[in-house]
Protein-L-isoaspartate O-methyltransferase
Amino acid sequence: MKTKICLHLLIILLLNGSSFKAKAQEMKFENMRTNMVLDQLIKRGIKDSLVIRAMENVERHLFVPIRLKKYAYQDRPLPINEGQTISQPYIVGFMSEQLKLDSTSRVLEIGTGSGYQAAVLGEICKEVYSIEIIKSLQERASFVLDSLQYKNVKTYLADGYLGLPSDAPFDGIIVTCSPNNIPKPLLEQLADGGRMIIPVGETGVKKLVLLKKQNGKISKKNVLSVRFVPMVDKRGISY
Ligand code: SAH
């Protein structure tokens, strides 16, 4: 009898111990996230309170491969699967801010990758449509986004060069892979008054270009030099 009670006690202690450990781990990630927002975003000039709040909320460590969790809040891009990368937090914040989005916006993302950028947009916008060309990445991102209850974020397995004509026009378009030239279908799917941010360039360092559509006319501005993975078609050939 006594041994049975002792065993029960031991199990309860172990269970409480492991949930205590999980809670402590969660708090550690929360601290890292707060520091990331302060040091990497606010101190570097990100001001949009919706972007700041979104990046305070989204648990970046749940989007990166498990073995890289501990690096999730560091000031750098990280590899995800299939040779792709999740952008450095500052670039995610910077690109999101450039689009001037709010709770009424409908936005299109090309290059779902891990789903992290889509989740950040999901915190800010009314609807997020995100296209990924690699099946395993689209499936994983969709699973993570669903399990975190991002009901306003939809992912699609398709070639993002073509955009998503069925749901156009979009108030914002964010492209997180780099083509050599700006895809025409995306320009056409941008709403009047809308903004698009896209890394463009042939090899190595690309220019992050901000485009605005006003009365049917497009204006362009180079805003930053960046490195991004290439935009490819279904055969893997760069655009
Ligand atoms: N935004 C992502 C990072 C994307 S990395 C995140 O937050 O994690 C760029 C992604 O673009 C890769 O996953 C790559 O597979 C995808 N990609 C490349 N060409 C594409 C295309 N034509 N259409 C859609 N996605 C594409």
About this structure: The domain at 38-226 is CATH 3.40.50.150 (Rossmann fold). The pocket of S-adenosyl-L-homocysteine is lined by residues 84-87, 110-111, 113-114, 116-117, 131-134, 137, 159-161, 176-177, 229, 231-232 (CB under 6 Å).
